[in-house]
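Incident log, structure service

09:12 report received: a user says their structure output differs between two submissions of the same chain.
09:20 pulled the input from the user's history:
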Amino acid sequence: MGVNLDQLYEEIKSDEGLVTNDEGESLIYRCTEGYLTCGIGHKIVEGDAEYGFVEGDTVPMDSVKQHFEKDVQTAIEDCRAIYGDGFDSWSEERCHIVTNMAFQLGRKGLSSFKKFNAYYLEEAYGAASLEMQDSRWCLHQTPNRAKRLSERVLALANDPR
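09:34 re-ran on a clean worker, output below:
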């Protein structure tokens, strides 16, 4: 039960993607919200070695890996803060869905899904899925990812694992 890090890394990597140049070097790019980003969905913030870089600059792959591993751990900690001690006893699938959301949205963003979080805690997965679909995140920001995750939530109703 809980998080399978290897599988979670692959899921998030698949959703986030990795922007590279023709030589396979990671490039700094702007995410859907317009923030400078590098590697696998890492929002560049003050204190990062890449702070001050511009769109199109390259980032070493060892930095990409370090950011990604740290960001996944942050997302897991965010879920523990939002969902409490029970989070670690949930099924992998249940943990992975919200950790994926926390990776993209951050603690503040995921916390703002008040009705979704309440339904998810109650295991009311149909209602939780509908809340996901009725959001700016799903309708305007990253609709494909949001719909995939909402379908996975809905599947929990039939197979809560």
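09:41 both user submissions now match this output. Likely a transient worker issue. Closing.
09:42 reviewer note: The radius of gyration is 16 Å. Residues 1-84 form one domain.
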